[in-house]
Amino acid sequence: MHKVIIVGASGRMGRMLVRAVAESEHAKLVAATEREGSTLLGVDAGELAGVQTLGVAIHSSIPEGLDADVIIDFTTPKATLAHAKLAAQRGIQMVIGTTGLDKNELQTLSAILAASATVKASNFSVGVTLALQLIEQAAAVLEADYDAEIIEAHHRHKVDAPSGTALSMGEALATGRQVALDDVAVYSREGIVGARESGSIGFSVVRGGDIVGKHQVLFAGLGESLEIQHTATDRMTFARGALRAALWVGDQEAGLYDMRDVLGLN
Ligand code: NAD
After folding, report:
1. Do 180 and 213 reside in the same domain of the chain?
2. What's the CATH number where 213 sits?
């Protein structure tokens, strides 16, 4: 039985993660946390998630000396770095879904977790993981003559843009074309921007309502276009994927893994 800690347990994803753990025969929730000052401290994590009472009250920190295997973290970049420090000190593995970490934060995170086995993915759904593979393949075949655009849509509360998944799709595209994403990415267009530069990878962002997550990669050529599209309709898909990663990472050697590793696609 894997002993799991969910941080950010009252968040949109946190509640789904608590539910996924409660529904699993292979995992047990041993702690749940929220940020200091949250009005939900002390509430049972299972009740809040709409499953049965789990006897795990939400605290503002992970109890000292707690016996745990893995922390699942879908919070904020700052909180994730703090959780990573603690996980490394206590020898607990991590599954990280938080997006929006900048380059410095990503470097710091890798350094902190250098001696641990960690799974980090911008999207834990099986469909998106497979889409990344298909995008890389398509980009290798459809050369720069096919203009590549990534269009993503998310709910009105999302704070980072483009989404972590859109950036992963951009990385997959760049890998397929053997270029560096930083050299070819176009993140915004406004005014007289001139004709499209061949080989660029464009990003477009939509925010609104309760859209769980929609990603489309468009390869627009002359006389034809190809679209690879993924639509998430229920956040449980991310939570189940993250739990699958949490069960998998227990047997791995130190290293930073992604969902492609978990699914055996790498
Ligand atoms: P949310 O704002 O609903 O939840 C985040 C929670 O973290 C909040 O409840 C917040 O109070 C809590 N938190 C902040 N600081 C904390 C701390 N120090 N300790 C404990 N809890 C703390 O956001 P969300 O929609 O659940 O998304 C969270 C993150 O996960 C975002 O970065 C989002 O982009 C990402 N996400 C990733 C995937 C994926 O598959 N990788 C899927 C969905 C969302």
Report:
1. yes
2. 3.30.360.10
Domain check: are 113 and 8 in the same one? yes
For the full predicted model, state whether its pTM sits above 0.85: yes
- Do residues 43 and 149 both lie within one domain? no
* Residue 166, token pair as written in the block: 């859109």
Ligand 1 mutation target, pool 6, 7, 12, 13, most atoms within 8 A of CB: 13
Q: In this structure, are 95 and 166 located in the same domain?
A: no
What are 119-160's pLDDT values in tens digits?
999 889 999 999 999 999 999 999 888 999 999 999 999 999
Range of the domain at 177: 126-232
* CA of 82 relative to ligand 1 center, distance in Å: 14
Same domain, 207 and 101: no
Long-range contacts of 39-47 (CB under 8 A, 24+ apart): 40/10, 43/10, 45/6, 45/9, 45/18, 46/18, 46/22
Dump pLDDT digits (tens) for 185-209: 999 999 999 999 999 999 999 999 9
Residues with CB under 6 A from ligand 1: 7-8, 10-14, 33-35, 38, 74-76, 79, 82, 97-100, 121-124, 164, 238
CATH number, position 52: 3.40.50.720
| Strands 117-120, 93-96: pairing kind | parallel
> What is the distance in A from the centroid of ligand 1 to the CA of 147?
33
| Residues designated as active site | 154, 158
Say whether both 170 and 82 belong to one domain: no
Q: How many CB atoms lie within 10 A of CB 163?
A: 24
